[in-house]
Amino acid sequence: MWSMIRSVLPARGLAAPAPRHVRWLDPRACAARLPALGCVLYLPARVAPAPAGGLLPLRAELAPLAGLRGLFAASLVTGDGPREWLDAVDRQGRVLARLYLLPDTDYLAWDALLAAGAPGAAPLRAPAVFCPAGAHVLRFQARTLAGMSLLDARTPTAMSPLGSQLALRIAKAESVHVQRPLAPG
Asked: Closest by alpha carbon to 80, among 170, 17, 13?
């Protein structure tokens, strides 16, 4: 049991997160809703997912989202206060990326993203330990071209000092550094 709890912890030394709410989504529908979130902390995994039909990430950092099939919502109370995140998972329940809610994130869009998916049960096997490849503070961008959903991202032009500090603390807890900024947007 403890190995299962440890496997879903977002950082070492923290209490177990609250139960996860699972929402299964079409990757294109999810990509279309990501820009409404505004500024988020994005942590891609070190996995090479099987691409989903109709979704084309335009940056290498976004490639893990190509295999997205669902979102697991989780929360945790830390010494810094509450944290909420979404794990983007594939069909087998492997975590492809993690999105953290920041003070600069649109909370209503966050809830709308979760409401867009169909409720579902978590995969039967315990998720593997999440190993992020880095961390990026970004804003998603999406558009459709010739029937393909294109997913892109930019570094926010402005961010609150509280949001910046929290992003750095979360990245440190996840044992990664915030990567160089993407092109502003």
From this structure: 170
